[in-house]
Write a structure and sequence with these properties.
Layout: H1 3-12, H2 17-26, E1 30-32, E2 38-40, H3 42-53, E3 64-65, H4 68-76, E4 86-88, E5 100-102, E6 114-116, E7 121-123, E8 135-137, E9 150-151, E10 156-158, H5 170-173, E11 175-176, E12 182-184, E13 204-206, E14 228-230, E15 252-254, E16 278-280, E17 301-303, E18 325-328, H6 342-346, E19 353-356, E20 374-378, E21 394-398, E22 416-420, E23 439-443, H7 454-457, E24 463-467, E25 484-488, E26 507-511, E27 530-532, E28 555-557, E29 576-578, E30 599-601, E31 622-626, E32 645-649, E33 665-668
Parallel strand pairs: 3-4, 4-6, 5-7, 6-8, 8-10, 9-11, 10-12, 12-13, 13-14, 14-15, 15-16, 17-18, 18-19, 19-20, 20-21, 21-22, 22-23, 23-24, 24-25, 25-26, 26-27, 27-28, 28-29, 29-30, 30-31, 31-32, 32-33
Antiparallel strand pairs: 1-2
Protein name: Disease resistance R13L4/SHOC-2-like LRR domain-containing protein
Organism: Punica granatum (Pomegranate)
Keywords: Repeat
């Protein structure tokens, strides 16, 4: 639920929602994400429901009915009393002939403020029935309003996902009052918006994913209080009404994923958009920003990612003193002409997030951006980073193929570091300064090792990912704080440090490292849940490192391990086991004891001569076996009561019993 849509409801009850929301957030009872979605803690939800249930033994006397089936029964049996203030039919499974609610069912519900009809149908004369109704959501394919549906006090109308078309009779037959503040028509098949003159108080208009929409009615100019206009993913919309440029209350204009080519902002109208804070143009058709955009002094966010804007930003950025987010991750095919004017960027003193890809120039120093927390840049000829502010929390450098050094000494607050295709970088400097670092991602970097001090000084590191670093030969002792370690396709890697100190490690992926034959300390990783050593010629299974002590291990993949001839003892906790492409594997007797196993894949294990009896694998749901040409039977297969999917291919000698009644999917080639 978008918090911006419920605030008008709370304000109507004379509450102070902003204060209440802040208090609940401080107590960690609710959370509001970056997308403005409000999340309630389960305990708070359960407390509220428990309080309501204590009001009376009979649901018809409760103030709120949130369970769809119970609410439907109360209405159909006309048990609802005047105490009922909110009804939700969401989740109720209606029979086609029993989805109709008539006016008599609502006769006693004089205090009803919130009604979620889901796909129910209304029938009858509703004169005077919904005098107190403030919120109505209705998601029916054919929304046909009943007689005398008067919604004089309605604040929120949600008709999203309904089969409403341009000539919908409801715009004329329903009597709306002047209080309506939120209109949600998301995913409705309209090609034109309604006339907005009937909704003078509207604050939020949501038309997201109206795939047929091509026309926004000019009467939108009458909405003097409109704060939010959401046109995201209206894929056929190419033009906005010119009247938008004079909407003084507009704060958010979201045209992501549309074909809109031009913003209706001129030098004459720009003075009217005094409150515009967030224009989001993500993947839109806009190719050029108006020169007057620098006069929108209230801008807080400017999202340009995925557009074909070729001139990046016009001048006059100095006046955008409130700008906190500038996201301009353009595609390489249109990025050749981009250039950042150094002094313009440095004037954005409130900037917290800066994402700029495929740029031509950077200032020599960015340390004056003292509020900057996130910097994501891409610059092919970048050899070294400029001086960066110590406020940085996240640093991402991509496609800097000429980069030879990275000085991190000043980044004492950095929590996330990502270096992607910084191809000439051979060494990380000043890692000991990164005492707050939690995540490090290195992709296609020329480093041969990591600094020795990483184990001692980077004591908060939780995620370490090294991918495609073909020059990497060894790693030093790693910090014991690690939860996730992924080392992928490092073709020169010959040895890992002893991992015994990684007591908290839950995921270990070491994949495609062609020269790695041993992982020391593996048997001591007692927190490990997910282990993948696919594509590594490991011989450790024949040595002292045992897997059976790993009682938390749920997922094990040893695909394409050509040196593996037999399975060692395995922990009984395993739920998924994949051994594909282990063509020297001659027996898998250890599998027979894995009573928790749910998925097993032994495809292309060509040396297997027979399978153990799987009768103990009563939790097994998915079994895949391919190109095991010597296997003639799978003993006890019909005893696996939970088996739902059996994929067999290339097993020419195999004879199967009839399992058609037992299985949902049987594939055999």
């Amino acid at each position: 639920m978008d918090v911006r849509l419920v605030i008008p409801m709370w304000k109507d009850t004379k509450l102070s929602p902003e204060v209440g929301i802040e208090i609940l957030q401080l107590k960690s009872l609710i959370k509001i994400g970056e997308d403005n979605k409000i999340w309630m803690h389960d305990q708070l939800r359960d407390l509220g429901r428990s309080t309501v249930e204590q009001e009376d033994k009979e649901p018809g006397c409760w103030s709120r009915l949130w369970h769809g089936e119970d609410a439907f029964d109360v209405l159909v049996q006309q048990q609802g009393k005047s105490k009922v203030e909110a009804i939700s039919l969401e989740g109720c499974h209606f029979m086609e002939e029993a989805d109709c609610l008539n006016d008599e069912m609502f006769r006693k519900l004089s205090r009803l403020r919130i009604l979620e009809l889901a796909v129910a149908r209304l029938d009858g004369n509703f004169q005077g029935r919904f005098r107190q109704l403030r919120w109505l959501s209705w998601h029916r394919k054919n929304v046909s309003p009943p007689t005398n549906l008067i919604l004089g006090n309605l604040i929120v109308l949600d008709l999203s996902r309904s089969l409403i078309r341009d000539d919908w009779i409801g715009w004329k037959s329903i009597e709306f009052g002047s209080k309506l503040k939120v209109l949600n028509l998301s995913k409705c098949p309209i090609s034109r918006t309604p006339d907005f003159s009937a909704f003078p108080s509207l604050e939020s208009l949501i038309l997201e994913s109206c795939q047929e929409l091509v026309w926004v009615d000019p009467s939108i100019a009458l909405l003097k209080n409109l704060i939010l206009l959401n046109l995201r993913d209206c894929k056929r919309l190419e033009k906005l009404p010119e009247q938008l440029g004079s909407m003084e209350s507009l704060v958010e204009l979201l045209i992501d994923g549309t074909r809109v080519k031009e913003l209706p902002i001129s030098r004459a109208s720009v003075g009217s958009l005094v409150n515009l804070r967030r224009p989001s143009l993500l993947r839109s058709g806009v190719k050029e920003l108006p020169n007057s955009i620098g006069q929108l002094t209230s801008l807080v966010e400017l999202i340009l990612t995925g557009t074909d804007i070729r001139s990046f930003l016009p001048g006059n950025l100095r006046s955008l003193k409130k700008l906190k987010v500038l996201d301009a991750r353009f595609s390489p095919r249109v990025a050749a002409g981009y250039q950042i004017i150094s002094d313009e960027i440095l004037s954005l003193s409130s900037l917290r997030v800066l994402r700029i890809f495929m740029i031509k120039s950077l200032p020599a120093s960015m340390s004056t951006l003292s509020c900057l927390e996130t910097l994501h840049i891409s610059k092919p000829d970048l050899q070294t980073l400029p001086e960066l502010p110590s406020s940085l929390i996240s640093l991402e450098v991509q496609e800097a193929s000429a980069m030879t050094s990275v000085n991190l000494v000043n980044l004492v607050n950095l929590k996330e570091l990502l270096l992607f295709r910084t191809c000439e970088l051979k060494e990380l400097e000043s890692v000991s300064s990164l005492r707050k670092l939690e995540k490090m991602f290195l992709y296609s970097v020329k480093i041969s090792t990591l600094p020795e001090e990483i184990g001692a000084f980077v004591s908060r590191l939780k995620h370490l990912v090294i991918d495609g670093c073909h020059g990497l030969k060894r790693l030093p002792i790693l910090p014991s704080s690690l939860l996730v370690l992924r080392i992928l396709f490092c073709h020169s890697l010959e040895r890992l440090p002893d991992l015994s100190n990684l007591k908290n490690l839950s995921k270990l992926w070491v994949m495609g490292c062609r020269k790695l034959s041993k992982i020391e300390g593996l048997g001591n990783l007692l927190s490990l849940k997910d282990l993948d050593t696919s594509g590594c010629p490991l011989t450790w299974l024949d040595g002292p490192e045992r897997l059976d002590p790993l009682h938390n291990l749920k997922r094990l993949r040893i695909n394409r391990c050509t040196s593996l001839t037999r399975l060692p003892e395995l922990p009984p906790s395993l739920e998924e086991l994949s051994l594909t492409g282990c063509d020297q594997l001659g027996e898998i007797e250890a599998v027979a004891e894995l009573e928790s196993l749910q998925g097993l894949d032994i495809s292309s294990c060509r040396s297997l001569m027979k399978l153990p009896n799987p009768s103990k694998l009563q939790r097994l749901e998915v079994f895949r076996m391919g190109d095991c040409e010597s296997i003639t039977k799978i003993p006890g297969l019909e005893e696996l009561s939970n088996l739902r999917e059996l994929n067999i291919f290339g097993c020419k000698a195999l004879r199967l019993p009839n399992l058609s009644k037992q299985l949902r999917v049987i594939t055999r080639n």
